[in-house]
Amino acid sequence: MSAANDNKLAYSPAEAAEALGVGRSTIFDLMKNGQLRRVKIGAKTVIPRSSLEALLAETPDAA
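Structure (tokenized):
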């Protein structure tokens, strides 16, 4: 994640996809499978920064 986004507490699915370098459909798949936590705020879905960091921490490095 970029330094400009370090202060954000949560990301939209599109922002999360951009931050991780994946497509939005991948983000929705990760949320659907429970690998990425989402929070509904009214009609808006956001992904907590801590959830993105946890996903990266538990994903093994590619060999």
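Residues 3-54 form a domain with the Arc Repressor Mutant, subunit A fold (CATH 1.10.10). Residues 36 and 52 are 7 Å apart (CA to CA).
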